[in-house]
Amino acid sequence: MSMVKTPEEIALMREAGRVVANTLSAVRSHAGVGVSLKELDEVAAAFMEAAGAKPAFLNYRPRWASTPFSGVICTSVNDAVVHGIPDGYVLQDGDLLSVDCGAFVEGWCGDAAVSFIVGTSDPVDQELIDATDAALARGIDAARIGNKMGDLAYAIGGEAKRSGYGILADHGGHGIGRTMHAEPSVPNMGRPGRGVKLVDGLVIAIEPMLILGGSDDYYHDDDQWTLRSANGRRAAHSEHTVAITADGPLVLTLP
User: Fold this and answer.
1) 207 assigned to a ligand binding site
2) How many CB atoms lie within 10 A of CB 58?
3) Per the annotation, does 111 bind a ligand?
4) Do the beta carbons of residue 133 and residue 165 sit within 8 Å?
């Protein structure tokens, strides 16, 4: 499988993952009431430059996109689920902010996301974030040799659905390596025992995206990038890049 990475390649991806993790930490530390999304993007850009990393998102243009992405990070606020463009919006008390970050180091990519509350936390929003983080943890735990992608997808989405959350339709995780998005697809809903077999050396980005209210539907903003929940409810996004190894799942996007 061309998707499989050697231990040496995984070690290089770990360095990219470390930059991603530390960039997210810097952005989270800077976020606060009165801070603009553009300011957070500038923090991320400066941190990556100092680390000698190349932003994975800046000027990224997949086939479906009408314009390249204009930010170093994705900043999605409240009902924006993913792919929010960092603009002049100023964060308000109680906003739910999801930050997605990707970086290349020596040609290898890391990708991760985190969600948190700015200022005063609403318990319902915090429960949503906790549920999204828990879904990611279940997915990581299922990323083991011999399991199938359906086992991992069911681990992510089964409990989340039973708890009443929506799961963003048509979107999920992905393979990753020399490019940010590669095969295989990593769905957030699936049936156990189905799909690609997970093998030693496979590296994937696992990323649940949960929505309050139970609806999976979304629509595109006028910018053609930002995806918003169709029901107008808040959403959260959590992601790690994970290598499947003989010793179990290895999270690459940690500090």
Assistant:
1) yes
2) 17
3) yes
4) no
Per-residue model confidence as pLDDT tens digits over 82-122: 999 999 999 999 999 999 999 999 999 999 999 999 999 99
Residue with tokens 């549920």: 131
What token pair was written down for 199? 């093998």
Alpha-carbon Rg for the chain in angstroms: 17
Mean pLDDT of the chain: 97
- The reply to whether 237 sits in an annotated binding site is no
Written as one letter, the residue type at 37 is: L
DSSP-based helix, strand, coil % in the chain, nearest 5: 30, 30, 45
Q: Is 106 within any annotated ligand binding site?
A: no
Is the pLDDT confidence value at 138 over 80?
Answer: yes
Distances, alpha carbon 77 to alpha carbons 48, 54, 70, 74, 203, in Å: 23, 25, 17, 10, 29
- Kindly state the DSSP code that residue 89 receives in the 8-state scheme: P
The answer to whether 130 is a known ligand-binding residue is no
Question: pLDDT tens across 141-195, in order?
Answer: 999 999 999 999 999 999 999 999 999 999 999 999 999 999 999 999 999 999 9
Range list of H helices, 100-247: 123-141, 149-162
In angstroms, the CA 3 to CA 110 distance is 15
**H runs (alpha helix) in the chain:** 7-30, 37-51, 123-141, 149-162
pLDDT at 232 over 90: yes
